[in-house]
Amino acid sequence: MPSAKDEAKEESLVPAQIEFRGVTKIYGQVAAVRDLSLTVRRGEFMTILGPSGSGKTTVLMLLAGFVAPSNGDILISGKSVAAVPSYRRDQGVVFQSYALFPHMTVRRNLEFPLEMRGMKAVERAERVDRFLDRVHLADLGGRMPSQLSGGQQQRVALSRALIADPPVLLLDEPLGALDRNLREQMQDEIRSLHKEFGKTTICVTHDQEEALTLSDRVIVMRAGRIEQTGTPEGLYDRPATCFVANFLGEANIFEDPAFKIEADEAQPSGTLAMIRPERICLAAATAPERPDAAHRQSVTATVNKMIYAGPLRKYHVSFGKSAFIVRQHVGSGQEIFEHGDKVRLDWLRSDVRFVMA
Ligand code: ADP
Ligand code: MG
Asked: Structure pTM?
């Protein structure tokens, strides 16, 4: 048994680098952030996920010191930063719109933060070379930002945020302006930079996939408040509310009170049953039972439509008053169903979740 003293020691090895204590930010009539409390540990990659207008950018602006809280306090390494101006907070910041200096070459953009810190020219040049090499832009140091692609500009922006070695990195929708393939490449790049430099990182996004793939922990925001905090898998697999279930992917919610759901867990009051589309098996209505049928609930449903989406087919089906989405990975020898076909849906009772309405 670890003693309380050991636990306290354990805590102090990974101190909370950033802490919000009951922070509210009011703009005129709008509370952009309401009574927000959170801690981010040293070296952690924390993502704030939420729809547009939920207050994500405001959290970053408060942390960066671009705006001041209306109420509450923000601590970095245990000290209130209320009186610390933004330029002294020592944070690397990357925004969606790149915000490189348009009149400076790539090299000058990277040198700038080092110059501000009084680093000597020889040392600066050496460090800029190292970073350009690291992000595969060694040949492009002489270009102006307007002569770079979106992905290249974002690599420069990331390098510029990291180059002066700040303890904290803030990213606001850093990949929002990039197309899908490039976004995936840049996700890999951000992940490997995080592994290499170990910066405490707070990333803001409305893209659930980005949040799930990049983060150690995710905060889901809704209307200025935290709806739920958890690991990517914890949130996706165990959403607490309908809002989180729907925001982090697709969710089938059992809303028909006449339908009797069977689940391994007891249903807490005020909740609805939920199951993820990929947890449902779809077969011909006449197909033989599965070997583990004793652990499953099954229903007969009608196919409303089938949408082919490359690696998977998405079926819209209905039974009773319920309309569900089922995802099936495309495989050889698989039966394909169409509008009007009768099918059997079944799912493990252990895959049913309960979410607050
Ligand atoms: P998100 O980044 O999640 O889209 P924001 O933090 O930008 O959300 O905005 C949260 C809310 O605060 C929105 O309703 C927005 O209109 C409002 N807001 C943000 N910045 C300002 C501002 N400078 N003045 C007035 N209202 C603002
Ligand atoms: Mg925003």
From this structure: 0.89
